[in-house]
Design a protein that fits this description.
Number of strands: 3
CATH architecture of the largest domain: Up-down Bundle
CATH class of the largest domain: Mainly Alpha
Structural class: mainly alpha
Strand order of the largest sheet: 1-3-2
Order of helices and strands: HEHHEEHHHHHH
Length: 227
């Protein structure tokens, strides 16, 4: 998604931007655990940014929903709950179904090319994961997003794409916390979504997307890692 500079000044912006990206990625990956306190001195040591820059970044992450402000007590990583997962899943479904319908209705040959390329890369990584190569999980996260983003890339709304990207990251965070890959079923889902998209079958693609997201939620909850 498009990132808005926190403050003016090239040096400050560069450090702030890098720190923002790192902190956000560490939260999504589960390296910073849900509910853990984000102490400014420790973050300054670990991320190499000033206290004032870190405060700006944490407020920005709080606006996105990755961090929770505790009034005068500071900040903590946003908690991960079953109700929160359902809420994010429902929001993703609303946004992605709308964008998918618009995209399938008007997508041209360039759109088809993006979808084909994205699915090819995703299928290759999923094949390795299904075969037991769990070291490719982070690659899968990136290619999974790239595929879903390609499917909706002809929707005609940059704002919708950016909102979807933010919600998708929150959804993926739960999968990273579950620490398990859904296996052949998720690869089959993606293949079916791919086929339906190229056929421009909007009702069937929307229905498959709903089942895909619901199955992802069920898988995360079955891991027992989300309260």
């Amino acid at each position: 998604m498009t990132i808005i500079p926190i403050t003016s000044g090239d040096d400050h912006y560069g450090i702030a931007e890098q720190t923002f990206v790192r902190l956000r990625a560490d939260i999504i990956a589960g390296d910073l655990e849900p509910g853990s306190r984000l102490r400014l001195e420790a973050l300054k040591r670990d991320y190499g940014a000033s206290i004032s820059t870190l405060r700006e970044i944490l407020n920005r992450l709080a606006t996105e929903g990755f961090v929770e402000a505790e009034g005068q007590k500071g900040f903590e990583v946003a908690r991960a709950t079953a109700s929160g997962l359902h809420e994010i899943g429902e929001l993703r479904l609303v946004l992605e179904t709308h964008a998918l319908s618009k995209s399938l209705a008007v997508g041209d040959l360039d759109w088809e090319g993006r979808v084909v390329a994205a699915h090819h890369k995703l299928a290759a990584i999923e094949g390795k994961l299904v075969a037991g190569d769990t070291s490719r999980t982070l690659e899968w996260v990136r290619y999974d997003f790239d595929f879903h983003a390609a499917l909706i890339s002809a929707c005609g709304s940059q704002a919708l794409m950016e909102m979807h990207a933010s919600v998708f990251d929150k959804f993926i965070r739960y999968h990273m916390l579950a620490a398990s890959f859904r296996g052949r079923a998720v690869a089959d889902d993606h293949r079916e979504l791919f086929d339906l998209a190229l056929k421009r079958d909007i009702p069937a693609a929307a229905g498959k997307l709903a089942l895909h997201i619901t199955a992802g939620i069920d898988h995360v909850l079955a891991s027992g890692r989300i309260a």
